[in-house]
Design goal:
151 residues, globular, Rossmann fold, 38% helix, single chain, alpha/beta
């Protein structure tokens, strides 16, 4: 039996959706096939996103920024989760009408300004908010998340 496919969608696919993809894989990857995409992909993952994910033991080197159009007509998602208002408004309707659709708005690390340490702190906050939301979502799916964080 194939695992349900989950798509996390944002605008640039450089921060929030990438973190959600990596976190869900770490927490419950054996239960889902996990994807992320952007309506206007930036072509890279933000360095501070990679840094804060590494801090909790997650290596994102296998992930890359991609367009939602890569999946049009090719993949059926059981769950489509938008993580920003722009993606919610601009997502192709075909994705919003398949499976279950949820909108989880989070602040955009790509828009954080300030020095490196300030941007890292704000990106950590968003990472932790996404992880908290995933814990709630997994409990609603009757799935116990794995412990993945390095001590």
């Amino acid at each position: 039996m194939n695992n349900p496919k989950v798509l996390f969608l944002c605008t640039g696919n450089s921060a929030r959706s990438q973190m959600a993809e990596g976190l869900l894989r770490a927490l419950a990857g054996e239960h889902f096939e996990v994807f992320s995409a952007g309506t206007e992909p930036k072509g890279r993952i933000l360095p501070e996103v990679q840094d804060v994910m590494r801090e909790v033991g997650l290596n994102m080197s296998g992930q890359f920024s991609k367009s939602v159009t890569e999946y049009l007509g090719k993949t059926h998602f059981a769950h489509v989760i938008t993580v920003c208002a722009d993606a919610e408004e601009n997502c192709p309707a075909v994705f919003l009408n398949m499976g279950t659709h949820e909108h989880w708005p989070f602040d955009d690390p790509a828009k954080f300004i300030g020095d490196d340490e300030g941007r890292l702190a704000l990106t950590r906050r968003v990472r932790d908010q996404i992880e908290d939301r995933l814990h709630v979502w997994l409990s609603l799916q009757n799935i116990t998340p794995k412990e993945y964080r390095q001590k």
